[in-house]
Amino acid sequence: MTLAARCVAMCLVVRVVMRGVIIVCCFALSGGAACTIDERRGGVPAEAQAVIDRVTEEVAAGRFESVYEEAAEEWRRAATPEQSRDALRQVRDRLGKVVSRTLHAGREREGTSGDDSTGHTLTISYQTTFERGIGTETFALVKRGGRWLLARYFVSSDGLKQ
Length: 162
Description:
The protein has a single domain, classed as Nuclear Transport Factor 2, Chain: A (Roll). α2 crosses α4. The protein is an alpha+beta fold. The protein is globular, with a radius of gyration of 15 Å. The protein has a 5-stranded antiparallel β-sheet with strand order 3-4-5-6-7. It has a two-stranded antiparallel ribbon with strand order 1-2. It has helices spanning about 45-60, 65-70, 75-80, 80-95, and strands at about 10-15, 20-30, 35, 100-110, 120-130, 135-145, 145-155. The chain contains 4 helices and 7 strands. Residues about 1-35 have low confidence and may be disordered.
C-alpha cells in the first residue's frame, strides 16, 4: 500500500479565484486505496463525468446558485452562496465558456471505513480551452448516498490574474 493510500487525512487547499480569497477544505480519509484515473482504466466514471458536465453547463448559463445548492457539504461550509456565486461568475466572465477539455490527471480514492461521508473521492484535472483563454480545471468530487457531489472546483489560468 502506498503512502498516499495510508493517509489519515488529506487537506486540500482550495483557492477560489476571487480577489485572493483562500478556502481550505479537509477530507478525512480512513486509510483506503488510491488509484490513478487514466484512459487505461476507462477514464472518469460516467456518473462523476455527468456532475462535471452539469456544473459546466450551470456555470455557462449563469446558474451559480444551482451549483452551490447541489454541491457537497464541504463546498457549502467553505463558502457562502455569495462567495461561491462571485467566484464562479469571475471564471465565466473572464474566461468565457468551456470550449474543450482534455483529461490531464485524476485520482480516485476509496476509504475502507465504510463511512459514506469520507470514503470515496475523485480529484480530476483537465487542460481546458475556454472562449477567452486556457487553463487547468480541477474538480474534487465526493460520493454521498450513492451520488457524486462537487466538493471543490479550482481554475488556474493567466486570464484570471488581472
